[in-house]
Amino acid sequence: MQRPQRIGWPSVAVILSLSTIMTTTATAKPFTYVNARFGQSCTFPDEIFNNPLPEPENGDGQQWLSADGAELTCSGINNVDNETPRSFVDDEKASTESGYKVTYSKSGKNWAVLSGTKDGKIFYERRLFGKDDVIRTVFLEYPSSLKAKYDPLAGAIAKSLRGP
Fold it and tell me: Which domain holds residue 35?
């Protein structure tokens, strides 16, 4: 018998990781966002990302802003181009977009991670490629001057990304 999959609850390791980071970054508490349309979820400190933007009409995800210029997006898209983790990484690394550079990439069977710079800011992106042909994404972008603050948060938030 197949074990049912729990959605919307981050792993104990993610909670401990976020808890450790958050105790060192003031009194930030974890918040778990769950998307109704695609079922992706991510956990992050809502005292840092405390300005939620309205969800788009299509309900594909949500974006939050911080007071110091960081942005966090948790979203999903239908995989209409049959993208794979490897093709995603290869395409992004080959990009000639001005001001965009991938400095780290890794992919597995159903996931991919990228990090780099875009227009003078640092970005970190994790994608999960679901069997339901949905790509679920966590994307963070923050000023380079805040690297020490957001680099540890980026990894913990990205690892909290879940999908059905």
Answer: 12-78+127-159
